[in-house]
């Protein structure tokens, strides 16, 4: 099996995921998974597609992360891994990943700040007099 490439996005985070057959090593920006994501919850999010499809320890994953916050990055990686697994074997992995909701791109973005007010929706305090 050659290298499979997929892209995952969430908010401002972009994850480029490269899957190859291997022993289950996950490398993010040339750092091990445990080094990059210190929190157990974030590592769990990253490994969810492998757990759902039962492919833990079968693929080596090399990830390039860009932009966003740490949670958005973890969710971008999850989408990228799910898409890469679908590319490898659509019939076997797609139904489980789709049922878990890992193939859906979360389109929610931060709304832009509007002129004449302090935030996107927030207004300055109204003064009657």
State the main characteristics:
5-stranded mixed beta sheet; 37% helix; alpha+beta; Ribosomal Protein S5, domain 2; 129 residues
Characterise the protein shown here.
This protein has 129 residues and is of the alpha+beta class. 37% of the residues lie in helices and 22% in strands. The protein has a single domain (4-100), classed as Ribosomal Protein S5, domain 2 (2-Layer Sandwich), CATH 3.30.230.10. The chain has helices at 33-36, 40-53, 70-88, 90-100; strands at 4-10, 13-21, 26-28, 31-32, 59-66. Strands 1-2-5-3-4 form a 5-stranded mixed sheet. Strand 3 and strand 4 (31-32) form a beta hairpin. The protein is elongated, with a radius of gyration of 18 Å. The protein starts with a strand and ends in a 29-residue tail after the last helix.
Q: Give the spatial strand order of the biggest sheet.
A: 1-2-5-3-4
Helix-strand category: alpha+beta
Domain tally? 1
Shape: elongated
| CATH topology (level 3) name | Ribosomal Protein S5, domain 2
- At the first level of CATH, the class is Alpha Beta
Number of contiguous helices: 4
Radius of gyration equals 18 Å
Tell me the span between the first and last alpha carbons: 73 Å
Low-confidence stretches: none
Average pLDDT works out at: 94
Q: Main beta sheet, described?
A: 5 strands, mixed
Order of helical and strand elements = EEEEHHEHH
Number of strands: 5
What share of residues are in beta strands?
Answer: 15-25%
Task: Identify the CATH architecture.
Answer: 2-Layer Sandwich
Kindly state the percentage of residues in helix.
25-40%
